[in-house]
Amino acid sequence: MGVVVAAAAIVAVITTFSVAEESFHEATNKFGANVVVRPAIESIPLVDGYSTMGSLYAGNNYIEESDIHKIYTIRDNASLSVVAPRLYGIAELEGSSVVVMGIDPQQERNLKPWWMVRGHWLPDEDTEEPEALLGSDIALPLGLTEGSMITLSRDNISIDVRVAGVIESTGDNEDGYVILPLATSQYLLSQEGKVSSLEVRALCNACPVEEMSRQIEGVLPGIEARAMSQIVQNEMAIVDHTKSSAMAVSIITLLVSTLTVASTMLASINEKMKEIGIMRAIGASDIQILSMLFFEGALIGAVGGFIGFFVGTLASFITAPMLVSQTPSPMWNILLPVVGICILTGMLASLVPAKRALGIDPAEVLRSV
Length: 369
Hints:
This protein is 49% helix and 24% strand. It is α+β, with helices and mostly antiparallel strands. The strands form 3 sheets. The chain has a 6-stranded mixed β-barrel with strand order 5-6-11-8-10-9. It has a two-stranded antiparallel sheet with strand order 2-3. A two-stranded antiparallel ribbon has the order 4-12. The two termini are 34 Å apart. The mean pLDDT is 78.
C-alpha cells in the first residue's frame, strides 16, 4: 500500500503540473507582444547650472516599413507568430486632438484576440472608403457607433472615415485611440512608408525572447528590441516552485513507503524463519536467499508502481479540472520510469530483511522444530 500511495502521488503531481504548465503557456500566448521594437533614440538632458531645461532627442523616430521583412530573417524566425506594425500621431476630430494609431488589421487581430468590437473589424485589404475602429473613451462621449461618419484632419490633409466598430473598454491605451489601417494613417500623418514601432509575439513555450531581441537588433540596426518576458518568467517561477514543493512531498512519501515495505518484509522474514533455516540447512546459498528476497521486493514494487500509476492518473483527472480548469491525458511515457523507481524502492527495502535472513543459524532453527 505504501508503494501504491507514493507512486500515485508522484504520477498525480507530474500529470497535474504538466497540464498546468501547458495551460499557462496557452494563456501567455494571448498576453500580446513579448518583444517591442522601437527606434533607438538617445535622450540628452539639457542642464543650465542647477536647472533642467528638458531633453534633446537624437536619432530617427521611425522605422522604415520596407525593413520589416528583415525580422523574418533572424535565426529563430520559426518562433515568430505575429509582427504587428504601429504608427502613432495626432490628428483633429471635431475640434479636439486625438491619438491616431495605424495598424495592419490582420496582424493586429492575431495580436489582440481579446478585443471585443461592437461592429466589425477593419478589413484586411484597403478599401475605397476608409474605415476606423474607435476606443470607447472617444466613441461614447461623441455618440459614435458603427456606421457613423467622422472627419479626421492633420495640417492640410483631411479624410472622411466610416466607423467600422467600437472597441469595448480594455482599460488600456486603445480606449482613447482612433485606429486606422496603416496606409490610411500614413497618408493622414504624412509618414508614407514609415512605422513608429513593431510589436512581436513569439509562439512557443519558454521562447528565448531575449536572444530573439538581440537577433532583431542585429538585422535592424538603429532600433531597440525590448523583451517583455519578465512577467511570464515570474509566473513560471511560481509554478516551478509549487511543483518542486509538491514533488518533495511525493519523494518523502516514497521514502516513507520504503520503510513501510522494509518493515513488512522484516515481519515476513520473522514468520518465515523456520522455512529459511530449513532452506539453508539443505544447501541453499546466500545468493539464492538474497535473490528470493530481492525478487519479492521487486515484485511488490512493480505491482505497487502499476497500481499507483493508474490511481495517480485517476486522481489527476479529478483534481486538475478543479485546480487548473484542464483535463489531463494519461502520461504513458512516465509509466516505465515510475514502475522502475518502485522496483528499485522495493529492492532497497529488501536490504535489511536480507541481512536478517542471512543471520539465521540453520542448526538453531532445526533444534526448535
